[in-house]
Amino acid sequence: MLIESRRRAYLNAMQVVHWLPRTELPFAAPSRPELLLPVEPLPEPVSVQEEAVPVAAAVVRPAERPKIEVPRPSASPRVASKPAAEIEPAPVVPKVAAVPPPRFTLQLLRAGSCLLLVELATGEPFQSRDPSYLLLKDMLRAAGLPDSPQIIGEPVRWPLLVRGNLDQGPEAARDFVQGFVQARLEEAPCTCLWLIGLPAIRFAGQADAQAYCLELPVEGLGAAWALPGLELLMDEPQRKADVWKAMRRLMARWKQTDE
User: Fold this and answer.
1) How many structural domains does the chain have?
2) SS3 breakdown of the chain: % helix, strand, coil, rounded to 5?
3) 3-class SS string, 54-76
4) In the sheet that 104-111 helps form, which strands lie side by side, from edge to edge?
5) pTM: predicted TM-score of the whole model, two decimal places
6) How far apart are CA 214 and CA 153, in angstroms?
7) Could you tell me the residue range of the domain that residue 251 belongs to?
8) Are 124 and 20 in the same domain?
């Protein structure tokens, strides 16, 4: 309902001077008596001669009425808009690219008191006449270990699944490889773990190529020796000299046990 003051404000804004409600309005002021008098008859039409009076003299402009700003209720308060220069752009969220799972194949072997975690560069198990396997046998003979190592279990192939939502990223691969080797160590301990190839060093020893020919203490796995991959040693024979120097320093570790 409109109170009388707001009703008159609306009528003045619409330039309505005289009005008469059809029914009694609540909260309205009493009607003025002069508005209830009979309406006077309209004046007779002006003749053609009278219409010939110059327009500039005949036209009388009505007095302009002051415009009244009427407050209009709104459902929610208006928020002052900022200039285009002050509008802060929405922060751009960078898209994090999904890290593809690493791909490698590792074979675990036992030679005397040492365990060997060897990278299979081709992804296939060792064959008796493979050049890489023959090189491994030469390295074991030079180290004073049996040159016919015992294969332990099936090769570890990563990723485990071709499809599925299982996390197969680098951290999952590290946990799996370390857990696999640790389980074999609980069955039969070793004096030194050989990590041959970068995948073995990365996912079992938590190191990189900078650790080649170094001894690494690995939590849960004991002492580990990081070695370049067999394929890398065949492609770059000059690396064999560094391997031989490191082997002579560590040889006493497993020779005392085997004797």
Assistant:
1) 2
2) 35, 15, 50
3) CHHHHCCCCCCCCCCCCCCCCCC
4) 150-158, 104-111, 114-119, 192-196, 222-227, 215-218
5) 0.63
6) 27
7) 104-258
8) no
